[in-house]
Each structure stands twice: as C-alpha cells, then as structure tokens.
Fold these 3 entries.
Entry 1:
Amino acid sequence: MEIKVVNKQGKETTKKVKLNKGVFGIEPNDHAIYLDVKQYLANQRQGTHQSRERGEIKGSTRKIKKQKGTGTARAGSIKNPLFRGGGRVFGPRPRLYGFKLNKKVKSLARKSALTYKAQESNILILEDLTFKSPKTKDFVAVLKNLNVEDSKTLFVTTNNDHNTLLSSRNIKNTKVITADKLNTYDILNSGKLVISEKAVDQIDNHFNS
C-alpha cells in the first residue's frame, strides 16, 4: 500500500511512502488486541486501595457485654464487623493488577491495530512535524490543514521534540508519542493516525528487529 506524503500545510507532495505489508497489511487478530488493551488498562490502575479489618481498628478490647443471659447473640469486641464502626470483612488490599503478556502477542496486537487503521484509510503520512518554538496556535493550524481538528488524532514522531510536545499538550483529543512507545490502546482510541515520514521506517525496524 502506497500513501502520498503531505506537508504541514495539508498539501500533497511528490513523495510516496510504501507501507510494509508485514506491519500494516496482516490478518488482524482480535483476541491479541483484546489481551494487549486489557494489559495496558490494567497497568494504569494504582491498586493502592485498602480498608481496615478488625485487627486494624482502634478501640477497646473490653468485652462489651456478658456472655449469657442477654437474649441476644454473644459479642466479644466493639471492632466486630457486624457493629457500626467495626472492621470490614475481606476488604480491598493493595495489589498489582498487571499481568504478563508475551512479546509476540503484543507485537501481533499492534500490527493488527495498524492494519485496521490502514484498511479504514485513517493513516496520514506527514512530511515533517517540528516547530521552531512551542506555540499551540501553530499546532492547531496543522490540525486544520490536515482536516483532523474534529477527530481524535494520534501523532507518531521519531523523537521527543520538546517544542512539539509543548505545542500539543493543551489541545483536546490530540496526543503525540514516539514510534518506540506506540501501543495498541492509543492506536485504536484515535480516529486518525498521523505518522511522520521518518517514523514509518522506525516502526518497520521496531517490528522487524
């Protein structure tokens, strides 16, 4: 598949980029995509939730009433979970939600996500994405020139250009990442995928290494 390269003014250039069929044209695997997205979202969870059980509640250890003759159930502690202010039974504890996923499965998932974007014609190849100074106005102008200002857009570059990141960070529904940090969730969560010309080769090298 060949895609024409456009510049920041939104005009087509004479250059074309041929997308690697082994990355952008495979047979998509939906289950691999599911597993990779599930792991990505699980890794975002902090897992710092915790509630106090009866051993962690402050209070007297005095037996609150005599064992027999009250006509009600016996009770030995005010920290009993049955009482107001008592400890919680089987409450949440700090834990890690992440799980292991094989590299080949993650690679297959990302290739599948890129293939879906290519099949839907939602990939744009941008000649260059650099700014002399950090200006949000300049980045907004690029979005308008590319006709992507009304859709979720993911920009893929070769390096962490400081000016580009600063220019885009306050714009809603827009994200800029480097090719080595490309992940399945961000690809599928975007409407348009805008890849810089140099980043295409970096993506190919990443998946073929």
Entry 2:
Amino acid sequence: MAPNVIIVIPAYNEAATIGDVIERCLKAGGEVIVVDDGSADDTAAVARRYPAELLRNEINSGKAASLMKGMRRAVERDADIIATMDGDGQHRPEDLALLLACAQDNPGAIVIGSRLADREAFPRARYIGNRIADFWISWACGYRVEDSQSGFRLYPADLIDRIDVPHGPERGFVFESEILIEASRAGVRGVSTPIPALYEGTLVRASHFQPLRDVLRIIRMVAWKLISRGFYFPGLWRVVRG
C-alpha cells in the first residue's frame, strides 16, 4: 500500500507564488497543509482557493514554528511521510517523485533534495554558506550531510514525536539543521537525492535566508551541540574519513 504523504508548506508573504505551488503539489499526488505565518499580504486568501488545509499563525512566528505546526498536524492526520517545501517557487513539486523513490530505497531515513550538483545555478554567497554549514552539521551528525540547508525534504512521520527540537521565533533556519542532528541521535540518518537549484528567474522575491546571519546562527547552535558532547571527535573522524 502506498504511504500517506502530506506536504507541509510554510508561507510568509507568498501570495504571488503559493497558488501555483499548491496546485502543482496536488497534481504531484500529495495532500497539502499550508501554514500562513502571519502574512501581511493575501497568502491565506489565495491558499483558500485550493483543496488544501490552511493553518495560520496570528503573528509572524518564523519558519521553525510554522514547520513544526504543520508537521504536528500532519501526524494528527496519520501521515506516514511528511514532505516539506518552500512556498516561494524554489522547489519543484514535480521533483517529489525523486524524493519518494529515494525514500523507498532508504526506509525510515530523512530524504533531502540536494541542489549541490547544480552548483552553477547557486548564488556564490549561498553556495559558500551552504558548504560551511554542511561541514559543521555533518560533524554533529556523525556522517556527511549534503545540502543541509535544503528545505525540500521527506521526514518519517513517527520521528516528530520522538525528538524535541526548539522551534521558537528565533530558531528560523536553525530548525532544519538542528532536526538533522537530533534525528541522528535518535538513530535516524539523512540521505540526499539530486534536484535542480532554482534561483535565477524563478523567485518573485528575495530569499528570507540571509547567508551571513543565518549561517552564524547555525554554527553557534552546532558548536553548543558539539561542546555538550565533548566535541564529538568520533563524528568528526567519520566525516573526514568519508
């Protein structure tokens, strides 16, 4: 029997793109939950035009809070697999099939849609920041993580109740890095499958991700994780050794 896949889309001021993203997700075969993060535009009104569940944060609470809210609702709806993607058009819902094929080959794993094979499409600062974050997160996880900053992922739904990851407003993009680390401590690894990197000509607005600020926040979180484990040198050795 095919797994019950529910797609969670956090959205903040995505009125220009959210309708197209939802429509394509529905065609790709998944149920959809949109979490409107206190948008000041018509994101919620556009989302209501489609057969998707709409959740709302009354105030802007950040991507972490929106993701966790949507994931918990997906668990309540008996999801087997929770897919996450952004609402700004940088992920192609049509590529969901690639991630699901990878999940079938790696049952119980987190599947990450990796854009790194499409390096030429990356803005230089984004690529460098991504690679720096990958090293630190790989060390803390104890295995090599590819494209740790990709928000296009599949999670086994039972993972959400097994780990506790902070998701307050200040966690922002830290959440998606920290959940990989906490999952690894719970015995759940991440695997990657290639997807296109979509930047030039595809995004209506600038990314909410700020390479310097957000990478520094991620490094600070990872550094604390490593310090709390005595710097976890076995993890570093496994990453360096490959």
Entry 3:
Amino acid sequence: MLNLSLDVTKRQLGRLLGWISDLRVAIGLLLVIAISSGLGTLVPQKEPTALYHKLYDTQPWLGLLNGDAVLKLQLDHVYSSGWFLGLLAWLGLALILCSWRRQWPALQASLRWIDYKSPRQLSKLTLAETIAATNPATSLGQLEQLLKQQGWTIQRQPDRLAARRGVAGRVGPLLVHAGLVVLMVGAAWGSLAGQRQERFLAPGRELDLLNSRGESQITVAVDQFQIERDPTGRPEQFRSALTLKGPDGTSLKQAEISVNHPLRFRGMTLYQADWTLAAIGVQLGRSPVLELPLQTFPQLGDQIWGIVLPTRPDGSQPVLLSLSNEQGPVTVFSADAKPIASLVPGGESVEIQGLPLRVDNVLAASGILLKRDPGVPLVYSGFGIALLGGVLSLVATRQLWAISDPANGRLHLGGLCNRNLTAFARELPLLITSLQQVEQAS
C-alpha cells in the first residue's frame, strides 16, 4: 500500500514538473512578463503615494484603477513587486527543469558513441548511401582520413567507423537557459538591493552616500556646474565637475559628467540628469550680498523660479523676483502682480519702492542621479552567456557511420543531423565524390 502511494505521488510530481517545464507554459510566462514590463513604463515608478492619488483618483488608470488600486496591485514599483519577482522565479524554474529534463539528456546522448554494426541499421537512418568499392576496407581507411581533414571526430572499429561534428551545438540550448536564469537573478537582485536617488547640488555642496549601517561611504561634491546654451538661449548640454571623497575626506576621483556621459565608480553610476536654480544673491541698499533660496512657481509657467522679498522692515510691501534661467533677466513684480523692474545679474542696482535692489548672481544647481545596481554584472554576464548559447545553437550536430562490406564489395554510409538536414544531404554526395576521387588517384 505504501509503495502504491509513493508511485502515485511520483507520477503526480512528474506530471507537475512536466507541466511547469512545458514550452507553451514558458512562452506564456514570457508574454506575461513582457506585458508586465510594459506596465512599468506606463505607470510612474517609485513616486510618492500622493502622486498616484492625484493622477488616478479623478481619472482612473485605464478607466478601472484609482490610486488605491494602483498601490495595492504594486503597479507603483512593478519590477520589485512580489508578483513580478514571482513570475521571474517561475520562468527561471521552468528553464531549469527544461534543461534538466530535456537539454541535459540530449547533450549526454550526443556525447555517447552509437555503434551500428550492420548495413541494415544504416539503411534505416535519415540519410543512407551505398557505394561500390574494390577494397571496402581500404575505402573505409581513406574515408577516415578524409573526415579527419574536414574536422570530424572519429571512433574507429576494424570494419566500421562512427564520426561526428558540431557537438558544441548541443551545448547551445543549455547555455541559453543558463544565461536567462543568470540574467533574471541579476535583475531581481538589482530590483531588491539596488539604490536610486536624485539630488540637486549647487557648486560647493556635498552629498554623503551611506552604507547599510548608516556610515558615510563616499561623498559626492560638485565643484563646478555649467549650462551650455545655443544662440537662442535654449539649453544644449549640462556639465558637472565632481570630486568623490572617501570617509576620511581624501579625494578618490575627480571627473566631469554630462548628459549621456555618466561616471561609473565602485559599482555605482552618476548621471547628469537635470538642473535647477538653487539661490539668488541680492543686495538690499548697502547690505552685504544675501544668498537666498529660490523656489519654483508652476502657476507662472514651466521652469520659473522666484522669491518673495519684503521691502520694509515690518515685512510689508513685498515684491516677487522671478526668472527662468541663471542668466536672467530677473523680473520684479509688485504685490498686485504688475511688473515694475527688470534686473540683470551682476548689473547695477535699481530702486524698488524706495529701496535700492541689486542682483549679484544666480546660483544654478546640478541634478545628479545616482544608481547603484549590484545585479548589473550578473545581467551582463547572463546576456553574454545567452548570446553565446544562441550562436552555438546555430551549429548543426552531424553524425556519420560507415561499414565496409568486403563480401559484396560495398561501403555503406548513413547519417543524421539535428538541423539543416538539407545542407547535410547535399554534403554527403560531395563527400562520396571526394572519396571516389581519392580511390581513383590511389
């Protein structure tokens, strides 16, 4: 009874493993993963919760999902969500089982030599030829030398031989599966353990990067930030001169980053992402230059920064200083939103409501995007392994057998090929022709 129960369990487990490793299931998983990856490009990822409520509470996504539903389904972080990682794990298991149940036995079978001993066995193969030979034993030896010259591996018996070529092609599917599994492990590791943060740093400011214990690991300092503009004033390129410092303050590396030219250092990548206006230096009357922070004013338009300044000691009669780039001009608005003056950074002071006001400078800040992805080496390695496996999979594995028949004065040949059988069918007659030419020459 116990043995019967074990047999039933084994059969059920075998059916389950067979279903998981089924090619149709793997293709279905690939389609689901591809669609899920597309969702990650349609829905903003890893943004504050309030943004999803703002976007989807009034206008549900696809007309179905409001902010709460988007968050519950983990669409705000698709690539690190539990269900997406589960799909990757399922696909990885399917590839491992497929390799174990199909590809590995096929590779082992291709490495074993099959010894056909009778012409009747060769006649049943996909390709079979019989040629007349004055001395079949000599023809067999000449065939062996001809095959060796063409790169075939030979196993010789006194009256027969077996040859094969392109066994590396059998390794290709295994490498493809292994590469995909390594790639998915790297992607999952990067999603779970990777870091991504964006900061605006003005020249002279620093950003401390902490390790898992909260200790300073590397300090990023912006030494200089430059915005290159075309003749019409539109930004063309942003450049930041950076210094990377160790925990003790020593300089580890100095480099410049710009758009499309990031800096890679110790497993992290620093990108030149964006820019903003951080502060404005103003002089009120004979006061020293005051560096005041700027803030954005979306209600005035895209990329508009400004600051509200009182013109009286009691805080009354405020004015708004607004500008769109670091070159100015700085427009001054009164409390009733009327423009009353225009100032040029570094220019002369202008009397605003009885108070001399001068703009000394405008400080632009560099947008630094930091990405640390520990899974990148695995992703690239997996891609390389899969690519190598794909190339090897194109190699056809060919097998050839020959048996000498002295009694009938014949040499029997038979062959098999796992792909591109047509090419092998054209090659076999050419091989026979070459053999006959060798016989005639001898």
